[in-house]
Amino acid sequence: MRDRRRPIRVRPFTNISRDGRAWIVCVRRAGRHVSDYFPDAVWGGKGLALVAARRFRDELLKRVEPDLRVRRRVPKGVRSETGVVGVTMERYVVGGRAYRRFVAHWSDPETGPMRKRFSVGLYGKEQARALAEEARRKGVAQSRAQLREQQVAEAERRLEAAPPMPRMVRNPLSRKGIRMPRRRGR
C-alpha cells in the first residue's frame, strides 16, 4: 500500500520539501515556476542533499522578486467602486455634513497597512482619484523595493553561514543505483 502522508516541510525554509528520497526546491513568482530535485543518492546522503537544496534556493532568491501575494480573503459582496485595486471612495460625516474622499491602500513591510486620503471637495473628483492612484503606485513600488532588499540580505546572510556546496557523488543523468520516482504514463 502506498504511503499517503504529506511531504515533510523543512521550517523555516518554506520553498524546500521532502519527497521520498530527495529534497525538492520550488519557487513560484508572478506565474513563473522554478524547481529543482536533489536526490540523496546523487548528493551522498540526506544531509548533503539538503545543503545543496538550501544553497540552490538561496542563490535563486537573490535573483527573483519577493513574494507579494496578498494572503487574505476579501469579504463577500465588497467591491471597489473605482475599479482600481487599492483605491476606494469613502464617505464620511463631520459635524453633520457628508463628505467624500478617495483613499489609497497598500501594505508597508515595516509598519503594516498604509492609507493616504484625498478629499473630493478639496481636489475635485478626477484629481483626487488620480492622486490616490499615484499614491498607491508609489507606495507599492517602495514596499516592493524594501521587500526585495530584505529578501536579498536574508539570502546572502544564509549563504555566508551555510557550509560549502557539496559535490555530486553520482551522475544525476545515470539512474544506475538510484531509486527515483518514475513518471506515470497517462
Give the neighbour order of strands across the main sheet.
1-2-3-4
Which band does the percent of strand residues land in? 25-35%
Number of helices: 4
- What helical percentage do the residues reach? 25-40%
Short description:
The mean pLDDT is 81. The chain is of the alpha+beta class. It contains 4 helices and 7 strands, in the order E-E-E-E-H-H-E-E-E-H-H.
Describe the structure.
There is one protein chain. Helix 2 runs antiparallel to helix 4. The strands form 2 sheets. Strands 1-2-3-4 form a 4-stranded antiparallel β-sheet. It has 4 helices and 7 strands; from the N terminus they run E-E-E-E-H-H-E-E-E-H-H. By secondary structure, the chain is of the alpha+beta class. The protein has helices at residues 40-43, 46-63, 120-123, 125-161, and strands at 8-10, 13-19, 22-29, 32-39, 87-94, 97-108, 112-119. The protein is elongated. The longest helix is centred in the C-terminal third of the chain and has 37 residues, at 125-161. The mean pLDDT is 81. The chain folds into 2 domains: 8-68 and 151-161; 87-149. Strand 5 (87-94) and strand 6 (97-108) form a beta hairpin.
